[in-house]
Amino acid sequence: MDDLTERGLQVFSDLMGPEAAEQMRAAMNDTGIGADVARLATDFAFGSVWSRDGLERKQRSLVVIGVLIAQRQYQELKNHIRIGLTNGLTVREIEEAIIQTIPYLGFPAVASAIGPVMEVLRERGLDTGTATAEERGLM
């Protein structure tokens, strides 16, 4: 593997853990359609973009969280909430990032993001006792 791929796998390991990086390595070596996607993600997203200077990883996480809420990509949002926590984001910082998106995205997009965020916080033992709109019967 070339240097870009190795750098991408190292960043991916830092963000998601060594087991996830090994799964990514295996996906790149697969023969199916997903192999090229895995290589592009590793080389471009992690090897080129996440490894750049100029922003700390914590700041990059905030940007990605906002973008994923805007795109309503809630499965990937869960991954990046995990990554944000790994990068040192606090629950309060995540909450403020979510609130910051309301004027630009609207309440429906943000309300729909709360469930996936709470799922990750609960999984990490960071539940603040907050019920989601779905749990309250509001959605």
Automatic annotation (TrEMBL):
Record-linked SUPFAM superfamilies: AhpD-like
Top-level lineage group: Bacteria
One Pfam family it belongs to: CMD
Stretches assigned to the Carboxymuconolactone decarboxylase-like domain: 36-115
InterPro entries: 4CMD/NDH-1_regulator, AhpD-like, CMD-like
Any one Gene Ontology molecular-function term assigned to this protein's record: peroxiredoxin activity
UniProt-recorded name of the protein: 4-carboxymuconolactone decarboxylase
